[in-house]
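Hi P.,

Sorry for the delay on this. The queue was packed all week, but I finally got your sequence through. Input first:
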Amino acid sequence: MEGAIAEAIIVAALLLGLLASFVPGFPGSAIALLGVVAYAELDGPGGVGPDAQRVAAMIALAGVGGQWVGPVLSVRAAGGPAGAATGAGLGAVIGALTLVPGVPWALAVVGAVIGAVVGSAGAPWGARVRGPIGAGAGCVIAVLCDLIAVLGIAGVLAVATAAV
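Then the structure:
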């Protein structure tokens, strides 16, 4: 019975992690990692070992880091000023934490763009345009980083459980 519960928990955690990865600033990879840890505890010593859990934790950390750094680096790569990068990071965090059901992803993108516009107020016109474009692209990069991390964690789980 515990094996069925463990399998239900890991499937739910991976699906929730996949859904959460589409929200910039909300770490879906951390949810998937929690599912792996719960699966390892419920499945017993024959399940996911500590080495696989460490690898999954490193992948989750990389996914979370990509979520927070994506908008900032993307603004700078697009040629936006440093103030726009700071505004994009803060805007993405505030947008992701806004409690409006169904649209947190859109609020994170809008928050990043507004933060980039406010952060680049004294910059030349071209930089003010490049800042918000980079912020929006950074939110997409953040989503992709977390999505890849969730899929990587699922891969670690598949390899770890196939080895036993």
